[in-house]
Amino acid sequence: MAITLVPMTSEEYEKFYEMSRDNQVNDLVAGGMSREDAVAAAESELSQLLPDGQDTEENFLMMIKKEDDLTEVGYIWTLHEFTNDTMQSFLCDLVIYEEFRGRGFAKEALNQMEKSAYTYGCEESILFVKNDNTKAIGLYQEWGYMTLREEVDGMYMRKRLTRDLLEM
After folding, report:
1. Confidence bin at 168 (pLDDT 50/70/90)
2. This prediction's pTM
3. Cystine design at 38: which of 33, 34, 78, 143 (Cβ 3.0–4.6 Å)?
4. How do residues 64-80 score in pLDDT, each as one tens digit?
5. What secondary structure letter does DSSP report for 8?
6. Structural domains of the chain, count
7. Could you tell me the residue range of the domain that residue 83 belongs to?
8. Residue 28 CA neighbour count, 13 Å, CB half
9. How far apart are CA 168 and CA 164, in angstroms?
10. 21 closest CA partner among 48, 58, 1
């Protein structure tokens, strides 16, 4: 099924912010932090990462919508930045809503994100995935991402972006 990536509206950004914060809070609480401290930590991190909200430079906050009827199926957030003299697209978050999973939307969103990043000048895409997210790890490996560095709770993965992407 074809999708399109559309910049978030203010309302969509608020929904994204709440989901992102709540997911992080749940992870922190599961790790032993109090709910109150987890909320403060999550909000602090998001305000540092996105100081100007959806208008934060070099951050691309996009809704993933079905092309035919513009139904929201998820969202994707990337940051384009220079790291070690290489222009990278860092995949901060990719979420397909539960009722739309398993239909190829994540693959298509990755495809479109990578094409856009390459056109922007990025030479590689980087992401972090938690060890317990085996479905995402499988997707990223299938999509050509290789383990860059392992951490205690997950791994960084990388994919070189080439002109071939534009022909897909």
Report:
1. low
2. 0.91
3. 33
4. 999 999 899 999 999 99
5. P
6. 1
7. 3-167
8. 18
9. 7
10. 48
Q: How far apart are CA 66 and CA 61, in angstroms?
A: 17
DSSP 9-57: PHHHHHHHHHHHHHHHHHHHHHTT--HHHHHHHHHHHHHHH-TTGGG-T
Beta partners for residue 155, in sequence order: 129, 150
> What CATH number is associated with residue 43?
3.40.630.30
Do residues 105 and 64 make contact, with C-beta atoms less than 8 angstroms apart? yes
CA 89 to the chain's CA centroid: 10
Alpha-carbon Rg for the chain in angstroms: 16
Are 111 and 147 in contact, with CB atoms under 8 Å apart? no
Burial of 114 (0-12, 13-18, 19+ CB in 10 A): buried
d(CA 27, CA 60): 24
Could you tell me which of 31, 9, 13 has the C-alpha nearest to residue 21? 13
Q: Residue 117: how many CB atoms within 10 A of its CB?
A: 23
What does residue 56 show for φ and ψ, rounded to 5 degrees?
-65, 125
Q: 76, 114 in Cβ contact below 8 A?
A: no
Which SS3 state, helix, strand or coil, does residue 9 take?
A: coil
Contact 60, 80 (CB under 8 A): yes
